[in-house]
Design a protein that fits this description.
This is GntR domain-containing protein. By secondary structure, the chain is mainly alpha-helical. The protein folds into two domains: 69 residues, Orthogonal Bundle (Arc Repressor Mutant, subunit A); 95 residues, Four Helix Bundle (Hemerythrin (Met), subunit A) (Up-down Bundle). It is built from seven helices and two strands. A hairpin with a 3-residue loop joins strand 1 and strand 2. The termini are far apart.
Length: 179
């Protein structure tokens, strides 16, 4: 169980290095197992398992004899498609972002209402109360924004929809970076 958690944490670290820190870019080859496992302070076995997790998620591609590469995004051939890191460079209005949010959030909430566990429902309600308190205390404050992000994140988690759970944080981060 502990090894599985370490592999999962390593996968999350690699994912962050790729998607948030942009240390490894799309199409780029990762360092070899010895180098990368030493850099991360883990065993090669743990690294292999983390790579397997990210390969099954479509983020990495293992090419036998060549190495491990950051996979190209699924929509790479779409007309006018952009990379996640390019969102903050677009001239996006707050209205655009909130309209996009309104397209996805009601469905996420509907899914959560059908799929959430009892504990997830309790957490959503608890975080909703915190949001209301922070909104009254300081409508423009960072704590309000953070509490709102946690509330929406709990709804997404309870939807048990992997795409929504991965997409909405990108939207939230774009809102935070843009405004």
């Amino acid at each position: 169980m502990q090894k599985e958690n370490l592999s999962q944490r390593t996968a999350e670290t690699l994912q962050k290095m790729i998607l948030k820190e942009h240390i490894y870019k799309y199409g780029e080859k990762l360092p070899n197992e010895n180098e990368l496992s030493a850099k991360l302070g883990i065993s090669r076995t743990t690294l292999r398992e983390a790579i397997r997790i990210l390969a099954s998620d479509g983020l990495l591609e293992v090419r036998r004899g060549l190495g491990t590469f950051v996979a190209q995004p699924l929509n790479q051939y779409a007309e006018g498609s952009i990379d996640v890191q390019e969102f903050s460079k677009l001239k996006i209005t707050l209205r655009d972002l909130y309209e996009t949010r309104m397209i996805f959030e009601p469905e996420a909430a509907a899914l959560a209402s059908r799929r959430a566990t009892e504990d997830e429902i309790k957490e959503i309600l608890r975080l909703g109360d915190i949001c209301q308190q922070e909104l009254l205390r300081d409508p423009q404050g960072k704590r309000r924004i953070d509490s709102e992000a946690a509330f929406h994140g709990a709804i997404l988690k309870a939807s048990h929809n992997d795409f929504l759970s991965r997409f909405m944080p990108i939207l939230t981060e774009t809102i935070e970076q843009t405004f």
